[in-house]
Amino acid sequence: MYAALFCTLESLVTNMQQDAPHLSDVCTHLAQLLIEKKLSIASAESCTGGMISAACTDLPGSSVWFERGFVTYSNAAKTDMLGVPASLIQAHGAVSEEVARAMALGALAHSLADWSLAVTGVAGPSGGSATKPVGTVWLAWACKSSGRCEAQMQLFSGDRKAVREATTAFGLRHLVSLLKSI
Questions:
Q1: Which superfamily, per CATH, for 23-180?
Q2: Dihedral angle of Cα 157, 158, 164, 168, to the nearest 10 degrees
Q3: How far apart are CA 172 and CA 64, in angstroms?
Q4: Which three-class secondary structure state does DSSP give residue 44?
Q5: Domain positions in the chain
Q6: Whole-angstrom Cα distance, residue 158 to residue 132?
């Protein structure tokens, strides 16, 4: 009985993995859009610790469209590297819409990029609270030419690795959607 259940679950997981586009495919699509539109991006990462930058720069030729990445894990780094006001972090917490937006705008202000993606969250296994449980992530995307900046909160499940991977994939997929719309 357990063997049959395991085989069914294994088959379900395999099908889900095959249906979901691989991160490298998402990055390839992102690269094509950015090159076609003659745009570049920068990332500002806290909870992912450089995973977005790594996913982008895994592609050969990414220097054409990936301008730079900021790994701003500490509050001090957010302030020093991106210009996020310490008072904003103090008032709302590092994991907040306000800080995610400030990080995205700061990445644009401190780079030559046209678009930015910023992430800040609680990857776990500790650090969560009743209002910001483990898996809470704020993401923000900003465009230099339009001044547009949007933010979304997601609650990802799984262990630390799963939360960080889901954040990376969601952030990049949504950036593809935004670029398709312009």
A1: CinA-like (3.90.950.20)
A2: -50
A3: 17
A4: strand
A5: 23-180
A6: 15
Alpha helices in 20-136 (DSSP H): 23-37, 51-57, 75-82, 86-92, 97-109
Q: How far apart are CA 48 and CA 72, in angstroms?
A: 10
Q: 150: closest CA among 108, 111, 178, 122? A: 178
C-alpha distance across the termini of the chain, in Å: 53
Element spanning 176, H or E: helix 160-180
Question: Residues 103, 72: contact at Cβ < 8 Å?
Answer: yes
Beta strands (DSSP E) in the chain are 41-45, 66-71, 115-121, 136-143, 149-155
Mean pLDDT for back-to-back runs of 10 residues, the chain (182 residues): 40 40 94 98 98 98 98 98 98 98 98 98 94 97 98 97 98 98 93
Burial class (CB in 10 A: 0-12, 13-18, 19+), 73: middle
Category of 124 on φ-ψ map: left (φ > 0), alpha (ψ -120 to 50) or beta: left
Q: How far apart are CA 88 and CA 102, in angstroms?
A: 9
Distance of CA 58 to the CA centre of its chain: 16
